[in-house]
Structure formats: C-alpha cells, structure tokens
Amino acid sequence: QKEVEQNSGPLSVPEGAIASLNCTYSDRVSQSFFWYRQYSGKSPELIMSIYSNGDKEDGRFTAQLNKASQYVSLLIRDSQPSDSATYLCAVNGRNTPLVFGKGTRLSVIA
Amino acid sequence: DGGITQSPKYLFRKEGQNVTLSCEQNLNHDAMYWYRQDPGQGLRLIYYSQIVNDFQKGDIAEGYSVSREKKESFPLTVTSAQKNPTAFYLCASSPGVQPQHFGDGTRLSIL
Lengths: 110, 111
Known about the structure:
The complex is a heterodimer. By secondary structure, chain A is mostly beta strands. Chain A contains no helices and 11 strands. Chain A has strands at residues 4-6, 11-14, 19-25, 32-38, 45-50, 54-58, 61-66, 71-76, 85-92, 99-100, 104-109. Chain B is mostly beta strands. In chain B, the strands form 2 sheets. In chain B, strands 2, 4, 5, 6, 9, 10 and 11 form a 7-stranded mixed beta sheet that branches. Chain B has a 4-stranded antiparallel beta sheet with strand order 1-3-8-7, with no helix packed on it. In chain B, a hairpin with a 5-residue loop joins strand 4 (31-37) and strand 5.
C-alpha cells in the first residue's frame, strides 16, 4: 500500500514568516510530486509540481524534493493570512493515480 | 471557460436509495477520477478512468459504481450498499495521469 505522510498540524506561523510543510512517501519508484492548497469547504487547487531532485521556485512558493530520503517539502515565504489553508501532498508513479496525504493545516497569524 | 462541473452542490440520500453525482469536463482530458473526502482526512480514490468505456477501481470502490460512455462525462452512483455515504465527493480530470484538476465538489448527506 503506497502511503503519503504529512503532519496534520495545525502549523501556526506569524505573518511575514516562512512556513515549512513536509511530506514523506513510501513508494521508492514515485516519479511525480504535487502540492495542493485546499481552503475550508472548497476543492483542492494545484499550486506546485516537482519531478526531479532539488528546488523549484514559483513566486513565494518553493518545492523541494529529495528522492533518496523520499521527502518532499513546500516553503511559503512572506506568509500571508490568505495562505491559511490545508496543504495536501500528492505523489504518484508512472501511469498510476495520485496518492494524497491527509494534509497539513496552516494558520498564518496577522 | 474550460473546467470541471460537478452537480448538484448538495445532495441528500434517503436510506435504501441510489443517488448519482454528475461530473462533466470540457478540457478534453482523457483521464477522470472520483475521490471521497471525510472531515479532517485526505482524498481517497473511488474510481478512475483513463479512456472512454474503461474504468478501474480505486481504494474504496465498494458501494459505488461509475460509467464512462463519453469522454466529457464520468457520473458516480452511490448505491444503497454504501452504508456510510456522508462525505465530500470530488471529481478530477487530467490530460494524462497527472496533474489533476478538481471540480467544486458535491456534499452528500443522509436524510
């Protein structure tokens, strides 16, 4: 059974700080990694994808992947109250559907 | 605008009743998916389809059925065999296997 593990939180950070969200996965052959943001009562929204080791930056978001450690993270710089949401990590291998973690709830305090 | 449309937004099921949730996409995506989300939980895969007239069971398919007669449509039926149907149901689509984009969801409750 493929598993994706996330700390459920809540993770509380002050406005303007860096929020660091972490995710580990069990299937060593996983190839694609995604972060989704889900506001309360809404559907998930894709915010980042990463496919190779290292960092990928998009605006205030940076995804980091370490396949040897089976670890993927999301950094949010200059956190804003509007970033308060649940962040879902999703992982899959070749031609297999995504497996989602249970999500980390982030709260940015103004 | 291109997107994924789920209907209805809210649905109530009586005991012993089958109900069908609609999912339509105009993104020309090959793959479509149904997930269930319970409060405080992640998304669990019910069924998925990578091509018309073909679909596969996900992790929690028991008590559910689907069809994929058209590329644009992937309806989900929650049968009376699903004893705990109350949840948030999400439909997604993708051009291949990934990444997936979601509809706005349907909230199903028991009357």
